[in-house]
């Protein structure tokens, strides 16, 4: 069965899209640690990051860096942190999280955004790409 993230790539489930190329896709995390928290995923559906072939792994890092630089330009933060967990969704995803303090990196500190705030955040990041 297709992962929830494959359904997002295919447009079957909505998302706040940030970027897409032939092999990768980026969108806002729906339950963000901080405003601008973004997920970068390979279109190829693989569960664990260490199981990616090297080309896809390196491509995902390059794509994530591009998106991370745009987040850093768009969102007021100290820096953008990168994290890979994957315990919830079995489709590789890189978390890019605007960090101001350590608690932003803990996944226990969540912020609530409404639809307009998600849309404005996604538009601000896209404008920096
Ligand atoms: P993990 O697998 O533990 O790295 O976490 C999965 C992440 O995916 C969590 O931060 C969720 O908030 C996020 N997530 C789950 N479903 C969606 C969705 N439909 N749209 C955006 N983000 C999602």
TrEMBL record:
Coiled coil: none annotated. Pfam families: HIT. Residues 4-107 form the HIT domain. The active site is at 93 (tele-amp-histidine intermediate). SUPFAM superfamilies: HIT-like. One of its GO terms (molecular function) is catalytic activity. InterPro entries: Histidine_triad_HIT, HIT-like, HIT-like_sf. PANTHER family: ADENOSINE 5'-MONOPHOSPHORAMIDASE HNT1 (PTHR46648:SF1), HIT FAMILY PROTEIN 1 (PTHR46648). This is Histidine triad (HIT) family protein. It comes from Pseudozobellia thermophila.
């Amino acid at each position: 069965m297709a992962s929830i993230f494959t359904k997002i790539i295919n447009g079957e489930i909505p998302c706040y899209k940030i970027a897409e190329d032939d092999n990768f896709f980026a969108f806002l995390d729906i339950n963000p640690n901080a405003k601008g928290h973004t997920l970068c995923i390979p279109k190829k559906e693989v569960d664990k990051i260490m199981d990616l072939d090297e080309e896809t792994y390196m491509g995902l890092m390059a794509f994530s860096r591009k998106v991370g630089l745009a987040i850093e330009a768009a969102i007021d933060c100290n820096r953008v942190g990168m994290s890979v967990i994957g315990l919830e969704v079995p489709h590789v995803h890189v978390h890019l999280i605007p960090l101001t303090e350590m608690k932003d990196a803990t996944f226990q500190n969540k912020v609530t955004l409404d639809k307009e705030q998600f849309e404005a955040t996604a538009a601000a990041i896209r404008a920096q790409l």
